[in-house]
Specification:
Elements lengths: L15 H4 L3 E2 L1 E6 L5 E6 L2 E5 L4 E6 L11 H9 L1 E6 L5 H6 L10 H5 L3 E3 L6 E3 L4 E12 L6 E12 L4 E2 L2 E2 L7 E3 L5 E3 L12
Antiparallel strand pairs: 1-13, 2-3, 2-6, 4-5, 5-10, 6-9, 7-8, 9-10, 11-12, 13-14
Organism: Qingshengfaniella alkalisoli
InterPro entries: Flavin_Rdtase-like_dom (IPR002563), Split_barrel_FMN-bd (IPR012349)
GO molecular function: FMN binding; oxidoreductase activity, acting on the CH-NH group of donors, NAD or NADP as acceptor
Length: 201
């Protein structure tokens, strides 16, 4: 089949999310100016540069109590910092619990029973038991086409790695099985890896 998004796909569900998969999940934590913590997952997330290390996530919806965006972006606009918490398969239910639309100011760490730890370089909480945490300072928020589409780009200024995820000097994803987002309500875990050597190496 072929379709143009402007004219519609004619299927029971939008296939776009299922085509661009798997996608890593950025579990974004923030702390507002009043000291209230927030935690929310975003499946439009990725690393985008090595030097300096840059990551991005996109928010595509808005909440009535946040105007043109959601809690994470609203807080980052004011504080200019956030933390990306890597999601392992074993934390899938906790991650999913934080996807609920809570009123502004509600602490999703507390609502989902998730242990916090302090970040080292920014004023923000992080998921204490996550395989890795990326402390980020805001580089830019870009208003993308579409009413509520915002892309947040951050520079990674601090990295936490859980000790059991380091094996022979490498960050080993098979130690924790990263959770990834597929289409619809589907997810997958990474449990097997293989290596390819580039022709120029």
């Amino acid at each position: 089949m072929f379709y143009t998004p402007a004219e519609g796909h004619g299927l029971p569900h939008n296939p776009f999310n299922a085509i661009v998969t798997p996608r890593p999940i950025g579990w974004i934590s923030t702390r507002d100016e009043a000291g209230r913590d927030n935690l929310a997952p975003y499946s439009f997330f990725n690393a985008i540069a090595y030097t300096p290390p840059l990551v991005m996530f996109s928010s595509t919806n808005a909440k009535p109590d946040r105007g043109d965006t959601k809690d994470s972006v609203a807080v980052i606009r004011k504080t200019s910092v956030f933390c990306v918490n890597i999601v392992e398969h074993g934390m899938r239910d906790a991650m999913n619990a934080t996807s609920k639309s809570f009123p502004a100011g509600v602490d999703e760490f507390a609502e989902a029973g998730i242990d916090k730890a302090a970040c080292e370089t920014i004023n923000c909480a992080r998921v204490a038991k996550a395989p890795a945490n990326l402390e980020c300072r805001l580089v830019q928020i870009i208003h993308l086409p579409g009413q509520s589409n915002r892309m947040v780009i951050g520079e990674v200024v601090g990295v936490h790695i859980r000790d059991d995820c380091l094996r022979d000097g490498r960050f080993d994803v098979t130690a924790f099985n990263p959770l990834s987002r597929l289409g619809y309500r589907d997810y997958a875990k990474v449990s097997e890896v293989f290596e390819l050597i580039r022709p120029d190496d």
